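BACKBONE STRUCTURE TOKENS:
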Amino acid sequence: MRANRFTSIVFLIPVLFATTILWLQPTGYFVPPAADTPGYFLPVGYSRLLFDDCDSVAWMIRAENAKRGRLAGRVDADGKPVHVKPANDHGAYEIRLATPAAFTDRYFLEYPPLALAFFRLCYTASGSDGAAPISAALLDEHEFNFTSHLPATDAEQAFYRGIRRGVDASVIVLILALTGVMLLIRRGIGTGGIAAGSPWLCVLPAILYFTPCRFDILPAGLVLLSIACTARGRPNLGALALGFAIAFKLYPLILAPLILRFAFQTWARAAVWAACCALPTVLANGMMLFTDGLPGVVVPFQFQFERSVETLFVFYGRVLPLPLAEGTVGSLFRNGAVLALVLALCYRKPADVESLLRRCALAVMLFVSLQVFYSPQWWLWIAVLLIPLTRTHRGLTALVIFADLVVYATFPLAFEPIIVGILNDVEITRISNALTYGRGLLWAGIAGVLLRADYRRALS
């Protein structure tokens, strides 16, 4: 009885964390990266240790643009996505804010249509009518500029308060999504409590931090739900859940062959499964095509696929040769390596749901490791697949805990002082190398545990 009570207490932690965030956040302004914000309780260099406003603000800005009837898919004269860089000179940004400028027909959007629909749903809490007289610079420039600006006019203050209400609504929804994932993990991904993990691992620092300020818990949770439905004899429902995950983020697409291999019975049923999986993405992008035209669908993907190499925390230049991150050769290497692993993992049908979870985790880990930039919230994609395995895989719990701590130490703990300029180049290099190599070693250990367990299961 006491053990059950102790386990139940964990579900209060996300609620308390969300409550703390909502209580401490300023109402009429935001906290930019590396800022000493007036009235905010964390000083410069530590401003984002509890919550990161920037991504959430970007979501609400995109929602406001859509609410105003603007079309997604803004590009420059060369056909490149327009995403204005943060202002080095904040005074110049303030001048642009004060300079009258007409809104263009299209706005910058870097997210898939289903993600935009989620942002707009949360933004309904803002009360905005999509017609407030505000400067075009607020909606067309980088979200770092937006968060660094202290609203001056009555219109700006009202607008910022509305953006905050939208952000707060998204926090509540995402925390609820984490709670759902915790319940699923506690119950077990398979029937009869198979692949059940401790929900306490879902409130580790990095998982708890990135849940309310990124939306990655939604596709990650949907992937887990897809596997659970498939393991419980509902493959078409599982395909639909996977389809929604893909419509939020493309990465679950690499898991489709593995889940289909596990669920496969006949070619006819496989065709139905594929149709169910494709349906959410087709509908979401079809609606965007109808309302915003081809640029609204294509430009967000173009922006993501053309991201430049960011060497700070990636494996390229350390574990992997830097030339493999660049150009056509790099693209072929990344895609080829992931495809080869997925095909190898599909060679034998996963024997059970734990085998499927192991293979999905391996595929996602390789996919993330080969990216040319580092987004720490990707840890959520991996963690939700690993936690259900911790009770039956010796050593995995410790590896998950330390991997989570390294992710949080990387961002925001180390990243904030780095971008403030508190550290010199030598210190930045040492910290970056230590955290990146540490992450690599831990992920290699996790991969070793998973491969060993799957090899033993295949032999039994």
